[in-house]
User: What shape does this take?
Amino acid sequence: MRMLKTRMLGIWNRRSLIGNLVQAELRSGVARRKFGLFWWLLDPILLLGIYWVLVVVVLDVRRNVDGPYPLFLFSGLLFWKWFSTSIIRGGSSLVGRANLIKSISVTKVAFPISIVVASCIPWMLGTLILSGLSMAFGRPILSLNMVQSLPLLFVSFVTLASGAIIMSVATVYFRDLAGLTPHVLRAGYYLSPGLWSLELLSERLPDVARTVYLWLNPVALLMSCWRRITFSGAAIRLEDWGIVCAQCLILFVSSLLVFDRYDQDVARHL
Assistant: This one.
């Protein structure tokens, strides 16, 4: 417990470093691309068009969606973009800054965390756009249920940051993860409720199998919770709150334990 407290205080004391890294990440993203941060949004919008044609026009398999299906798709793609960017770029953050880490004494955990923060900013912009579109289509999202977005944002950030920290350490020792991770995540999207509603599992799987699935795929329930707020305007169930908070705590403690175990050894392997 003392180690966890020390690590958490260390992260908080390096918040200015994290802020500088976030600014550098955002500036480099704007400089590399003509559309800047808006390219972050163009990516899910392009995928939205592809998936809509595939699911609705070609396969005609849309089910259990109460509302405009393009907005349903967009809500899932937005969160998946934040998640995948955090894991892919956060996972490579230590390897990509190897020269800096080996030349000066720096808090290594700041690098994956800064990636998650930097990718959260355009995600929040996209979420505001989604909420506006939902209201334009008459979705009942303006209610007290919107208050849930604040604690859910905290839980989501800690969960993704913890995953990015673990991946950043693992990638130092297994460099092939940098090339493998995008392919695994591409397959993982189809196993998550991006194209379909999570309620579909209740119809096709027994309760035990559904519970196992939710525990093995933390992103699935987070995606569904954000969709309930920004697309359906509904309250998040107490059971779902319990699961996402427990998953968040487990990943957070695991990430700190991993970094505490390998922090001194990482620089030698970079």
